Fold these 3 entries.
Entry 1:
Amino acid sequence: MTSIKIIQEWFARCYGSQQQETPQPQPGGSVPVPIHRKVLVVIYNPIVQSEGGSRLAQVMGWSDPQTLATQFVSDVRQCSHGIANFDIMETITSDTFPVKEDGFAYTTEAYVNCVRSGSGFHQPDAVDYNHILNDFQMVDRINNGQVDELWLFGFPYAGFYESRMAGPGAFPCNSPSLNVPGYNRRFVIMGFNYERGAGEMLEDLGHRGEAIMQYTFRFLHGSGNLWERFTRYEKANPGQAEVGTVHYAPNSPNDYEWGDMTPVLSRCRTWDNYPNLEGDPVMVDSHEWGSGDMRLHHLWWLGKLPHVTGSSNYITNNWWEYILDPNKVK
């Protein structure tokens, strides 16, 4: 066996063969093939009989979850430059309250009373994910390729994490990994709160992206860790600001402060030319990312993620591949 053949087989064992999963290689720096992910949406929106049979979201004046889902799909397609496409395969509206880890479940009237009084919510709050996965036959849906991930829409104190990863080899995804047997691949469970809006949904996705990309780059250090470089902001890295994090824009003095007008030198614009990161920093302020609007900042931040073909240090130049499909992470 030749030395080249030995090396090729070693790489195949370490990094896996993706010949049947990915399109033919394209020249580095070109536009990637769009990625489609199939989604099952479950909306927990019980009927409140004492309010004329209206559903909880309507009774409380909260957002319509189906409208939120449509907006989110559109926003993600936009900020990913057409690469990330979530295809909702089925939407199930449940009249029930999800069961907590200790077996507790609200009744409709009890929950409404808690919201209106601002007290009495059950603790511990955490939901029983295994119960949910069993309720909706997720092992069959995932293993048969019917869906790639699960979106849960709920209300305040539903007990959901913003995102959670399950399946073989699952790793922390802005929450502890979920150990569930019987699945043949990793998948992500998103938890959305329909009391809130599209900006918070993008924040959930952003934190999912942060967790997955940090794990993807975990073996690279120094200049090779481009994720560490991407997330630099002035407060933590004086004089080295780049794009920042979901919570910190390049000039944010504090957590969640996306509207600060203090100018700062940042190399955020060089990421538009990835993988070419040459170029001088420019002076920017919050006008660059929406002047304090949460949704606009998150669209801007997600839009800076590398999204071209090719690879560097065995990591693809299209980071959306990992964020959308954690099975791509080695």
Entry 2:
Amino acid sequence: MKPSMLEAVETARGAPPAPAQRRTRSPALAVAGELARAGADALLLAPRTALFLARAPTLRAAVRADLAERRAVEDAPPPRALPARPLRLFLASAEPSGERHAVHLAQALRAELARAGAPPPEILALGGERTRALGIETVGDPLERAAMGADPLRSLPFYASLLARTAARLEAFRPDACVPVDSPALHVPLLRIARGQGLRTAHFVAPQYWGWAPWRVDGYRRVVEHALAILPFEPAWFARHGVRASFVGHPELEAGLAAPLPDEQRAGLVLLPGSRSGVIARNLPWMLAAAAELRTRLPGLEVVLPHDRADRRAELEAGLRAAGATGWVRLALGDLHGELAGARAALSVSGTILIDLLQHRLPAAVIYRLGSRLAAWAAPHALTVPWFSSVNLLAGRPVYFEACFRGQGPRAEVVAYLERALTQPAWCAETRAALDDVAARLGPPGAVERAARHVLALASGGAGR
């Protein structure tokens, strides 16, 4: 998501930056600098966008070449001699999915160090209840603010205070490595502060700058020593922009899932309207209307609304009532993979949920409804990729039907696609064969463990103290 938009980025080459010299800049001044930078970025957004649009065809051609890259997962070399003292590590997450990965990363780091006979690490973090449940001290909880859904301007004092507290704690704690997970809007400024203090930095779940706002990669290159990417084509793109990146695999791939069920043991359609309140409100009514139309063609079709967040029950039930769908849609909270395993097709929003669908080789129509005319105009112009769903990007072709739109959109096409998925076994077999190839590109499970080994290699290579 800089004299000009890409010129400095495209000429940035060479080895990753060495640890920065420790500066005497106070945490308050560091945060003030980030606020000033954010203001300048806002002022420069219009000219950067204009320059981007002028170069969009060239950028899109380059990204298409990167999408064809087939790369195996990259594990880390054995770390250098670990110190006798406990390693100090700083982890950060800003939303539920990121915290889930950060918690798994903390567990993997502890396990790797125990396996090496090293003492348990001392971990400081930004995070919520899951993080604290591991006995990890947190400086603050960005997840609470994210759950409120407040607009960025109203949230600015909260995040400025959070960055100031974190900067002060980093100065005192002096971790051997700082490793935020996902959420570049918060974590890139945080990494800039860490680099200003001479700390080593990695970032797990590299940002999708290749798909939007590619000019942001210049600032990213300056603050991230090692990006841990979850899609196989990302390292090639980041390498062209001077960022050291390793493909570790996708953290949503779960080991131990049962093999996908054959068609004769599957039945019904699952609706997946997203996890955030605003996304659910925009997409669920449309999905229910499409499912109702589909049931007129396929009477008795089983429709399930599975969700892994019980705290969304009230708004999901309200959406079903408003659509008059409580009698023919089953709400299922908790066992997402169990419901996906028994489904024949899915109507889903875009996002990491598509990786869950991929694991079950489930044909899907992917939609994303937009809330404003500006967003509807920007979507086709701002993206540098030919598709927005991860499965199609990995396949290099539209295996999943996808549509991003405002208003009613292509309901007839979506219904037709889903009817085919529910009634044509030969077509489904071809789709699942394509999904097999996509899954192979993502590599095996174990992304978090590989990421942990990369973090330890970085941390043991320089204490940053």
Entry 3:
Amino acid sequence: MVDRISPARRSANMARIRGKDTGPEMFVRKLVHGLGYRYRLHKSDLPGKPDLVFMGRRKVIFVHGCFWHRHKGCSLSTMPSTRTEFWKTKFRANVERDKRVVKQLKNEKWDVLIVWECETKSASMLERKIIRFLEDQ
């Protein structure tokens, strides 16, 4: 299948995709702050620069986009119909990096929670998940 938009327009679209301060991340940050928890953002001295870092609890939260990080079984985790080999390689590298980062953090005695983009659609369920994670000793 041929891309329906020009390479210049596709490039502009892709350039607008952010790595931090995304809609789902901002939703999680607002939810967590509203629950009374305080956190640091994107600590560069930790593997993977976690989205939210709870220093005293030694816990981190990553907010993953279902498409980019390949949320298994999720309808948002689609495969583009063009340049499929490129995308398979890209997605495989993302998933491998995510696994490596989680392993590094756990080896450094950090607890890790992954919040998927699709989970931000239900604030009440996500709230319970985050509270359980942060309050679990």
